[in-house]
Amino acid sequence: MKTKPAGFLLWVLVALMCVCVISVPISAAGGGSETPDAVAGARGGIYQLLSAGSANAYDIFTPAREGGSIFSSASSGVPGKTVEVFIQPNAEYEMASIFVIAAGGDQLEVFLKDGVYSFIMPDEPVVIDVTFQLKRIA
Known about the structure:
Helix content: 10-25%
Strand order of the largest sheet: 3-1-9-5-6
Distance between the termini: 81 Å
Largest sheet: 5 strands, mixed
Strand content: 25-35%
Radius of gyration: 21 Å
């Protein structure tokens, strides 16, 4: 009986590892420990980004967060157009940070004008990630 060369077994092992890596979802967790400021919603979940049904528009995800509400001017956006984001913290909270993250992992530039945040829609779905923290008492 002829045995298979070690090179063949190595290729099989590499192929299995590739399948395992591809099938595991990517976490958008920021890493590190939470601060004592009680930061809520700090990139703690797995974002599964899927494109919208239209070839011209992509989904805009605004996940629910403890400490406030996030609203965007649209549920899907056309690449190159401005999307407005409205933040409403609960009474005892304030906004700590805002990030807009594209499906590919890139962080987009966020603009602030007259209390309204906005960003330019890319050619892929995005997640608007807002964190809230308890108001500090001076």
